[in-house]
């Protein structure tokens, strides 16, 4: 009995047929020992069955808890995959090549915890470079010898060239094709993003990563691998990869966890600092790219806004949190104004929970109307908020309507927190107002949501 059979039989629940695994390992060895017409014919005849087996192998790898565990159950797995990756008659088959990529990335460990996983990562990178820069060995060696280019430099240059060609292949989305019945390249996006999983920190792959992230989502087939997005998000948050601004925005658009992490990191950074001036706060918000991302994508703003709502509730209206939300909204509205000729997203879509009668009056800046109109505008705002509060109080007897009323009042208060420029305008007018004009302004300044909100 071979070593591979013994190892597989020691697995509690083997997912692979022992004899079939041994059969394919023997085939891979035989195919690699001789390049003859018979060998090529045998390889081609077995490709269909090989694809099925690679799919089973991929399932087995994905069911393991770690690369270390996988290598314990399949100690010859690296030899098997390596032989296939170096076989041009296997790798020229698109499906086999994709499955090999998936098996390799399934073995890749983002944070290796031992020597086995570190060694496996190094080997996977080497194999991926081979797959990406595959050339006829004799021709490549001759070229390197005559040009005097070191092998590492040669392969890096070829890798960059292949990355550029792959960029071109994914460059045409459905919207750029004249004939909608023409096959688009969106099918290749998933495969390309899967192939990038172990390469997200490689500088040579940066152009391809940027191109993948910025593909327009005009087609249902234009989906990126979740593993690719998660690996890229982890690498970016740990500063192991540098992304251009638009690539960061696209990453947040595609990956919710990455966006949430960026918002929470911003909150932690800002709220733990003392003595932060308005200018420095605006600078920090701008550098975070979040206001710009929110202006470009309504869905990003809705997520960020929801996080702010939740944090404000937990902080019970803490002034530092309110101030941050106010300045963030101000930066967001400024970015939105810069994009007004490019986007037509209505305010209602950006603030769906806010009372619509109050939305435009609150979002409008005091500088956008004559100062003599401020008092009338503020009196109207104060009266509208008072009526909303009274309607909520009148509905206290009905639990369902009371709950809806409480939410309405909180949503109105949250919008006022975001648009605190009118609170500041009320303070400014209060200084010069007589006793008879102070009532509505004072009410506006003391307006709070229900205690249970």
Automatic annotation (TrEMBL):
GO terms for cellular component: Fanconi anaemia nuclear complex. InterPro entries: FANCC. Pfam families: Fanconi_C. It comes from the Eukaryota. One of its GO terms (biological process) is interstrand cross-link repair. This is Fanconi anemia group C protein. It comes from Collichthys lucidus (Big head croaker).
